[in-house]
Write a structure and sequence with these properties.
The structure is a single chain. The protein is an all-alpha fold. Among the domains are: about 45 residues; about 55 residues. About 80% of the residues lie in helices and about 0% in strands. It is built from six helices and no strands. About 25% of the residues are buried.
């Protein structure tokens, strides 16, 4: 009888430890996603300033400006990891086009406001990348727990579902082409 109670207590502690591990990883994933959200909000706030600065020098590049503004709006309104990743990839591509246009204007490149905005945006992009890597690392650990035996049994009992990674699409991996 005592052996049975000891085995039962060990199983209970094991069950609680795995369940708490899921809770911990789920909360870390939520926190990591929040970190991405914060950085993206900063990016969304900065983009109109960059666009307005470039507009002053390159008035005939209206199509590029519209793409940036549209991509920003889509990114702001995206919900879910997959939709957010797709929208962010579009926005990143649009920003690359915007900076490629800016390269053609020496006066703009020398403008102190533009240089400061470009530097801030570059730093922000680096922070977004770090946030994405952290999020993907936490999601990887969480997904492993969801699939590995015996924790997969507890995951299915309590509806812990795998999460999506924040991924870039193939078009993001290609260089931006700009022609004048």
């Amino acid at each position: 009888m005592i052996i049975f109670l000891i085995v039962l207590a060990i199983l209970a502690f094991w069950f609680i430890a795995i369940y708490n591990g899921f809770i911990r990883l789920r909360n870390r994933a939520d926190e990591a996603w929040s970190g991405i959200d914060v950085q993206l909000k900063r990016r969304y706030d900065l983009i109109p300033n960059v666009v307005e600065t470039v507009k002053g020098y390159a008035k005939h590049e209206q199509g590029t400006f519209q793409k940036v503004v549209q991509a920003r709006a889509q990114a702001i309104n995206a919900s879910g990891v997959k939709a957010q990743a797709e929208a962010e990839n579009m926005l990143t591509g649009a920003l690359k086009s915007l900076f490629a246009v800016a390269e053609a204007y020496p006066d703009l490149k020398a403008n102190q406001n533009f240089m400061e905005l470009q530097k801030t945006l570059a730093e922000l992009e680096e922070q977004i990348q770090m946030s994405r890597r952290y999020y993907n690392g936490v999601v990887r650990d969480y997904n492993i727990q969801c699939e590995a035996f015996p924790s997969a049994l507890i995951a299915s009992m309590f509806a812990f579902k795998k999460r999506d990674f924040f991924e870039i699409n193939e078009s993001e991996k290609q260089n931006v082409k700009v022609s004048f």
